Amino acid sequence: MSTETAVLKLQTPLRDLVTGAVQDSSADFGKSEQDKAEVAAWIEKVAQGQIPKPEGLKDLDTELTPRTYLVSNYFTAADVALYGALHPILSQLQPPQYYAHPAVTRYFDHIQHRPAVRAAAAPLAPAFSIVALDLANTPALERKADPPKEKKKKAEAAGPAEPAPKKEKGKAAAEVKQAKEETGEKAQKKEKKEKEKKAEAAEGGKKKEKAAGGGKPAAEEAAGEPVPSMIDLRVGHIVDIKKHPDADGLYVEQIDFGEEEGPRTVVSGLVHYIPIEEMRDKYLVGVCNLKPANMRGVKSFAMVLCATSKDGKEAGIELIQPPPGSKPGDRVYFEGSEFENATPLSQLNPKKKIFETIQPGFTTLETREAAWVNPVTQSVHKIRTKDGVCVAPTLVGASLS
């Protein structure tokens, strides 16, 4: 079934909403044949009344958790149709009810603020009026740092030990002595192994785990001086943004980093430097392994990477932009054989000042390309994804943070 045929099955005024939004170039029926088929399938679901009622939103919430849009990574007519179907449901829910479905709520709020949706909804008012959602007080999703990797204990594989039978006093004393001797031998062996591991690490870490990117050892917290590859940079997409309820200079953003858990809450001090209209729906580069921090009562789980003019903040701050076609979660890395395939730390230790040590080398080149310049060798390592180099819109010689 074609998307146009599916749209004709929608009831008015939803059909008028979808048709009006598609007239705007930002809405799409699909860029490939596969995408067009998916868009048509979603509209068909809506037309047949298959969108769940309030008590059945759990499955839809699970389906929307890893997504920004229904089809691929761009806005389509399917999003308009689903938004219209959800409108009478979300408009009747109270905060505790829609807080229980964070992915549906986040998705709905993002779509209802799309310019094409608002333009198409205007002549249909009040059918698709803005639904006021109190997202500022949404209960925070707790995220814990990845636990340190440990070798599995042999005892776990062996299962629970059988209870030892009672022994005579003389035998017990002899066995205690023997156990102590064996313990001493084990301690010596363990110490020897640890020395061997340290020696291997000094020779290049031959026995370290290989990184998924293609062979370089993973960066380890104990592995000498801070290096850029310890920082976890990823492409993010702002799916929702509001001003902090208790701080005039802060934004509270929901940023999709391509994670199954859904968007991260991120707090950025950009209110006085970048208008909120220029932040909405933007793709950016995020620092994703900083320790979560409370910012005036809201916990922030990442940092937005920005370029600050060499003449200071008042002269301009810009979001660092990933290359065209980037998707949420795309890996961002530093050029150079020593960095390209290394795995970042699961979380930066604030006491070791890793980011603070590396940050002075962050800059934008004459080409506006983002890079890290080694302060010792002056070698230039551009910041990039597999699709190209990340850039600042206008700033040259800017500091990145």
UniProtKB/TrEMBL annotation:
Region (Disordered): 141-225
Compartment(s) where it occurs, according to its Swiss-Prot or TrEMBL record: Cytoplasm
UniProt cross-references to Gene3D superfamilies, sorted A to Z: 1.20.1050.10, Nucleic acid-binding proteins (2.40.50.140)
Highest taxon listed in the record's lineage: Eukaryota
Main location: cytoplasm
Annotated GO biological process: translation
Keyword ATP-binding: no
Keywords from the UniProt entry: Cytoplasm, Protein biosynthesis, RNA-binding, tRNA-binding
MF (Gene Ontology): tRNA binding
Residue ranges, compositional bias (Basic and acidic residues): 141-156, 164-206
Keyword tRNA-binding: yes
Start and end residues of each GST C-terminal domain: 1-140
Cellular component terms per the entry's GO annotation: methionyl glutamyl tRNA synthetase complex
Signal peptide: none
Domain TRNA-binding span(s) in chain numbering: 227-333
Entry-linked PANTHER family: AMINOACYL TRNA SYNTHASE COMPLEX-INTERACTING MULTIFUNCTIONAL PROTEIN 1, TRNA-AMINOACYLATION COFACTOR ARC1 FAMILY MEMBER
Record-given protein name: Nucleic acid-binding protein
